[in-house]
Amino acid sequence: MIKLIIYFLLLSTTLGIYSDDDVFYCYDDLTDDELSEKIIVQPLDQYIFLIVSPLAFMCTMFITYSFIKYPNTRKMPGDIVFFISLSDAILCIHWFLTACYYTTFGENPLSSGPFCQINSMFSIFAGTGEVSYNVVFCIYIRLTLKNQFKVIPKLSIILHSLAWIAMITIPLLAKFTHNNGLSIFGTCSFKYHPGFPLAGIVLVLLYTLISLYTIWYFNKAIPDDEKYREIKDTFAKYYYRYIKGSCIIWTCEAISFTIAGFNCSYFHEGFLLIFITIGNSAKLCTPVVLSILRYNDPTIKEQVKRLWRKVWRRDNVQSELLEDDANFYDNIHQNLKFDQVNTIIFGIRAVCKSDLQLDTEEFDHINILRRYTDFKFQNDSISNSDNFKLKSNYNLTTDDFIEEILYEIDNKGTQNEKTIDLKLLQSTLTVYAPTIFQKIRDKDKKMINHLKSFDLLANQEQIKQFKGPDGGKGGAFFFFTHDNKLIIKTLSDQELAVIRKNLIPYFLHLSENETIISPIYGIYKLFRQNVEESINVVVMRNAMQIPSMYRIRTYDIKGSEHSRQVLKKNKKASEVELKKITLKDIDFQNLEQQLHIPQQYRERLRKCLINDANFFSKIKLMDYSLLIIKMDWYTYSQNNPHIKEVEIPNYFSSDLQCIPCINAVERGIYYHIAIIDYLQEWNAQKIIEKHTKKAIHANIALDTSAQNPEDYAKRFIEKVAYVII
């Protein structure tokens, strides 16, 4: 490259292509007419623009058309590649129009004239888009690899918004500050300002650092073994080339911009004008070279091949559309999800096996470390009498509640797991308060066999069917075991801190009271090797206990009425639709009014709800819900003749968790009842949420869902325990 530049310098000097008279002084206060005369597009630059820009435009439009042709390329990050190509296409039009104007009129347009002003806005808009979306791609890779178990709500909208905010804001700022017009390159874009010739180099350096960090993090986040080696090689092969190509081209632009700037400000040498030609050539290389490199982007590679065959061979490839909607990056994330779920289940199974004190030869390669943390209980609800109860009634101390066991898991698997395509990730699983949760598991061991529920082989079909987080607006991950007995759910760090802080009163409440609180059977944290992020998960009882196909309706009841309606007014939903959605308070009032249960259950259930609500108020928790699921046990027993109605209570630790419906038209229907989502503290976020909603609706008395724990418990008792029960 350096030799080539030197050759052109000597050639241009010999032929006199560039003259000292063509150099203008950047510090001169020139009028628009004078600036238009001073800044000229060299003949070589004109030919480059006229010939290469249409070719570059076709290269970018080939990718753009593939996105129109094949819908599955439009998903992220394919849509990012689309907008990069679209930005390049706009720049090609900009350069072609510039050359056409100069060829037609023999001079550059006026800097403040309509042509240059409009053309410069499009140039700045597209240039900003190209840079912004390249950075957005790096952000996307980083965020999606950070945690496969959590959905970032509206990630696509957020990332596109960031790019478009930059694409709109920067041109407008340039316009309002009078910084758009003729540049020293002879095109309409940003005006050159003396004193900042190194800005281009700084931007290229920042982009290079961001890109190299993305590659480094990708290699660190993807396991280094045979299963993932091809994925890593595919990504590295494409992205290394793309980064190398873009950095070389943009570095040439930056160096050309810097030298041209110094020449304009200080040197005033005609032969240095060749760097303007080099800079313009580098600009045109961006859509040509990078488009060719993008043809190998794993997201769109197959679609580009199909389109290429259709264009050049006239093949009918309409039937060759990919049947699988998942793109290259979707497959990476899905594989990592599967393997992490397998690793978590494997670790939990090891914990359950230690509960039974069975031969653990299956887990010999797991290294177990026991430790106590410096976690301190800061809970005023824990009294001396509670500590006395723990010692005298359960032979426990406060140390048992802060104990942690570390399970160091390698990636070898077990003899059984080797018979299937199963991959464990080298990780460390932290087990919190193992003795405490073992006692809670033992309480329900007649209805749930944890070792059986977490059998890896039996759960493979469930794991393969798993598509992603399914935790409502919070974006939490849910996994249901193969026997429908248990749920694995992700926890935020805040929720983990809440349950650990309140674990003593929580344990005592579950142990000493009749309750319908959905119990927690274990809390775990998974650390993957070489990845700094961790995953918090909790194991809980599944309120359904039988397959979801027998679910009739699901209600999430809080006792609030504001924004607590799912079904639209005057629109009747079908029974099929009702089975798929979670209904809320107003829907329950319209469809059910109250629970149709035998009288002997009503008072017990009401007393239970009141007791549980007061308990949550005492430990300062709110936002919990009463989950009511109507399940068709009659059809289930018909399809499973070995199931008898008298055996239904065996599926539950309390008959209050599954109560028969006495409505004559709903034969064999049972209400599955549990209190869920009870790890939310009354904090600043909830206070802001409450008052913001009141302000938006201009109603100080608005009954929002978010209330302080005392008011929340009072409303829950009044609206739920005494109304629907």
Automatic annotation (TrEMBL):
Protein name, UniProt field: PIPK domain-containing protein
SMART domains tied to this protein: PIPKc
Residues of the PIPK domain: 365-724
BP GO terms, sorted: phosphatidylinositol phosphate biosynthetic process
PROSITE patterns, alphabetized: PIPK
InterPro entries on file: PInositol-4-P-4/5-kinase_core, PInositol-4/5-P-5/4-kinase
CDD domains listed in its UniProt record: PIPKc
Pfam (any one): PIP5K
Signal peptide: 1-16
Protein's UniProt keywords contain Signal: yes
UniProt GO molecular function: 1-phosphatidylinositol-4-phosphate 5-kinase activity; ATP binding
Organism ancestry: Eukaryota, Sar, Alveolata, Ciliophora, Intramacronucleata
Transmembrane intervals: 47-68, 80-104, 124-145, 157-176, 196-218, 239-259, 271-293
SUPFAM superfamilies per the UniProt record, alphabetical: Family A G protein-coupled receptor-like (SSF81321)
Domain of life of the organism encoding this protein: Eukaryota
A GO cellular component entry from the record: plasma membrane
